[in-house]
Structure formats: structure tokens, C-alpha cells
Design a protein that fits this description.
Length: 151
């Protein structure tokens, strides 16, 4: 028996056509754009540092609510001269590729309720519970950044 020979010329090998794909880069870009728009909308509600520094000393006698945002920058908030007339106050801190440092009076208790994505919330206050202890509820988010609270 003889081997079969091809009956005609072989077609040239065809490389598979490249696929068109959206890919993760576009998805990440859209998420970053939405986050940036959100931050710009909410930045007017408090202290903001974008590619820079912001330093604010707050001495309100009835501090209830505040917000600070740091994007590729640092935001320092000093609340040591502030007073809380009720039982608690709320401060939202957002650190995106940046840092937020918050200083509080020694008689304040800090409760952290922030969200972290490759970042962190660090509470370095010494807790001294007593009858005149006020509570600062710390919310917000740290994304590739950090929020630190000191007394």
C-alpha cells in the first residue's frame, strides 16, 4: 500500500483573528471616573486636599458633623478645641491614595466605622471612659490610603 498523497495544494495556515475585548482597563477607568465625580460632588461639604495638603483647626462649641477628603494628598483636622454638646458627632474621612490625620480631645471616644480597600483606619487614642466622655463616630473610606486618629 502506498500512502495517500494530498489531492491538491494545502491552504495556507490562517492565524486566528484577534478578538475585540473591552478588557479590565476600561472597567477600571470607568470606576475611577465615577469615583472622581463622586468626590468632586461631595468635596464641597468639608475640607478637601487633592494633590496637595489641607490643614484645618476646628473650634466649634457644638460640633455635630464634618467631612474631609484627601486624594493624592494629606488632610489634617484638629478637633482638640471643639466641643460636642450632645452625646456624639460624626466625621467622615475619605483617603484615596492619600492620608487623613485627625486629632481629638482626650475625653472623646472614637468609634471607627470606615471601609478599607488596600488602606487602613488607625485609632491611636487612649480610651478613658467616664461620665463626660463624648463619642466621635468616624466613617468614610480608605482606598490605597490611610486615616489616623490621635489625641
Amino acid at each position: 500500500m502506498q500512502p495517500n498523497t494530498p489531492s491538491g495544494p494545502r491552504p495556507p495556515s490562517v492565524a486566528p483573528s484577534p478578538r475585540s475585548s473591552i478588557g479590565p482597563g476600561l472597567v477600571i477607568g470607568v470606576i475611577a471616573l465615577l469615583a472622581f465625580v463622586y468626590l468632586l460632588e461631595h468635596a464641597s461639604k468639608g475640607e478637601t486636599a487633592i494633590f496637595g495638603d489641607a490643614d484645618q483647626r476646628i473650634s466649634e462649641q457644638d460640633f455635630r458633623r464634618g467631612q474631609c477628603t484627601a486624594v493624592f494628598g494629606e488632610c489634617k483636622i484638629d478637633l482638640r478645641d471643639a466641643q460636642i454638646q450632645g452625646r456624639e458627632a460624626i466625621l467622615n474621612a475619605y483617603a484615596i491614595f492619600g492620608g487623613v490625620e485627625i486629632r481629638v480631645p482626650e475625653n472623646w471616644d472614637v468609634v471607627s466605622r470606615g471601609h478599607c480597600i488596600f488602606g487602613g483606619f488607625n485609632n491611636r487614642t487612649r480610651r478613658r471612659p467616664g461620665p463626660d466622655t463624648k463619642t466621635l463616630i468616624l466613617g468614610g473610606a480608605a482606598v490605597f490610603g490611610g486615616v489616623a486618629v490621635k489625641d
